[in-house]
Design goal:
This protein is mostly helical and 169 residues long. It folds into two domains: 79 residues, Orthogonal Bundle (Rna Polymerase Sigma Factor, Chain: A), CATH 1.10.1740; 70 residues, Winged helix-like DNA-binding domain superfamily/Winged helix DNA-binding domain (Arc Repressor Mutant, subunit A, Orthogonal Bundle), CATH 1.10.10. The radius of gyration is 17 Å and the shape is globular.
Length: 169
């Protein structure tokens, strides 16, 4: 395995985590990562070796995500109204419920805000790196982060027993 393939393989858990931020369905997130890895390995000669390979991979992942939008919308339109899905048991731990509520609120955001928050808060990229991945100016990234955080504050119901969301950056 050459060095670039090894560097790409090291980033798979981070790619999957970011894909889960963008996609609601874990299977769709896995497909997104698979498509990203396939494209990255096929085009590994295009990585300029300046900057981190992680940012390059995140950019590929986000581009694949955006390019799949028409197909996703078509698939959603074809879903039956009632699916036979097995019931799930409610989480037993308060932390899992809290995380589930946060993820649910995150998935209600527009994808531009979700992508910005996912790269900075979840993946820990700097604003410059995240803006580069999303191919937007840093000011636009900051605006999306601000609007996304504010929307999360409104979406996340602060109950009597639940702590308020804290600032991530």
């Amino acid at each position: 395995m050459d060095e670039t393939k090894w560097l790409i393989a090291r980033e798979i858990p981070r790619l999957r985590r970011y894909a889960l931020t963008l996609e609601r369905d874990p299977d769709a997130a896995d497909d997104l990562v698979q498509d990203t890895l396939e494209r990255a390995i096929r085009k590994r000669h295009m990585w300029a070796r300046r900057g981190s390979i992680r940012s390059w991979l995140y950019r590929i992942l986000f581009t694949v995500f955006v390019n799949r939008r028409p197909r996703r919308l078509k698939e959603l339109a074809q879903l039956p109204l009632e699916e036979d899905t097995p019931g799930s048991e409610p989480a037993q731990q308060d932390q899992r419920l809290l995380c589930s509520d946060i993820v649910s609120a995150l998935h209600q955001l527009p994808e531009e805000q979700r992508a910005a928050i996912g790269l900075t808060a979840v993946e820990g990229l700097s604003y410059d790196e995240a803006a580069d991945v999303l191919d937007i100016p840093v000011g636009t990234l900051r605006s999306r982060l601000s609007r996304g955080r504010e929307a999360l504050r409104h979406l996340f119901v602060v109950g009597q027993d639940r702590p308020q969301l804290r600032r991530v950056k």
